[in-house]
Predict the structure.
Amino acid sequence: MAEFEKRDLVSIEDLSTAEILELFHHADEFRANLRAWSEICRGTIMATLFFEPSTRTRLSFESAMLRLGGGVITAADEKNTSRSKGESLADTVRVVGGSYADILVVRHPEDGAARVAARYARVPVINGGDGAHEHPTQTLCDLYTLWKEKGRLEGLEVVLCGDLRYSRTIHSFCYALARFGANIVTMPYPGFELPDYVLHRLRRDFGVQAAAASVADLPGLAGSSNAAAYLTASKPHQLALFTNLTNFEVNRIDAIYMTRAQRERHAGEETKNYPRLTRSTLGAAAAKDARVMHPLPRVDEIDYDVDDDPRSIYFRQAELGVPMRMALMAFLLGKIQLRAGRPSHFSVEPGMVAGAGLRCRNDRCISNNEGVRYLVRDFRLREAENPPVLSCAYCEREVEARFVGDASTQAAYRYSAPDAKRIRAEARVYFESESQATAAGFRCSDAAG
Ligand code: CP
């Protein structure tokens, strides 16, 4: 295989907006005749490593690679892999992404697992869903389907309904919608709102403003939540003109995205009276031109008699998964080139030893689970002041660092102390608390801050 720069798809942010749009056009070409492309990846092997159940993601990836003329090896049941004997994800992907396969698709129950796989594998890694973190290829399928239906993404009004807290699909979709200039109306099942770290990222990276929303009556949905919110990116479109977005009235909806209760990630939370989309929901005037979306699998949250409504596109989302994933793999394998530039990612301060003092607060993060054995703590500085905010490089959960240490002197200071500001960037070690700094062997006296 020709040498090319390895690229992974761990987060939807790993593709630029222009790259995504170009991939849509390639997906259209593949879709025009799915059987015409069997030379593109001849001799290439894809491995699917699925340590959680899946129907659509795994089988559509396998179908996509077979249609591209490549081969497929799969580990679809962790009980039949050496993970059940205690082998780490890092070792598994080093082996399978060595001489066994040219590209890996990984699904794993722990947040941040896909980033670990991408770091350890020599070949491109695609995130097939990692815990409650992200599911970027589902988002590609969702965006592609919506774009084909509506002819654009900018300015669309998209309602997200149900378990917004644990749905990785929702998290990737939010970032992409904000980036494309769509407006998001969140209608969470109470207690299952978007996590703070997702909201912070929407605000910080896309300038998203949030306002309370009143949504025109959507029977079965609106009654389920008293916490509807309107999220709009402040830059790319006309809503930037609203200076006082205090209670936005939503009277026209372009898409309602339902998601099931992600019970496999719940810690015994009740989901009685979970929202349910019915024919009468679609009878609402605001839903006249709405598309009904769902990543599937559906449990009870969309009535079966909605399936025949022409506005229901959830099976189309699944169908378009094959050409979309063909385009993605052909790109990551260097079989098609894109004219569009790659995204410019947030950068790490050079030489920063930021993570040494911190521990990710997300109990589901791989760094607090199997990664305890081998991962180096790794954080990215996201906000430098008041106080500094860092995010875990694996799962992106944020921590506030109220103390900053100097690795060369082992002295630690409150973040606001003048001495803290004088520490060279490459010597900075961040801590959440004085006790955390002390436990790491730093002196944290009154004199020091
Ligand atoms: N949408 C989705 O990820 O479906 P599967 O869990 O069946 O792969």
Observations:
- The two ends are 57 Å apart (CA to CA).
